[in-house]
Amino acid sequence: MLLKKRIIAILCLIPVAILLLWVIYHVSENHHVWGSLLFVINVYIWLRITPLRIHHGDPAGIGMADGFEALINMVKSVVLGIIFYLLLTFVESDRVLPICMGLLSLYFLKRLIWRGSE
After folding, report:
1. Is the pTM of this model over 0.70?
2. Which of 6, 7, 4, 29 is nearest to 96 (CA)?
3. Which of 15, 85, 88, 105 could form a disulfide with 36 if both were Cys (CB 3.0 to 4.6 A apart)?
């Protein structure tokens, strides 16, 4: 029964990932700043809805782990957003955005598979 719930959760999250990637791609084509801001927000959302671990222990430890995970996710999404903005702005190639979206989709897929293996 647990495997069935995991498969259903994965199948429900796939359209969410596709929608997030689509929004980032189409906004970033013309507006690098807004696209990077959406990148940061969407990566943070994806990190929050696909946690990598389930915490076991006392309530205080679980609360601290969740708080630190939220801070780490914020820092991670901001750093990735800055890198995304710098690549879009300073690299003179039409392939930068598709390559970044491909890498982001692989990252989303990795998080989804890792989450599904818990």
Report:
1. yes
2. 29
3. 85
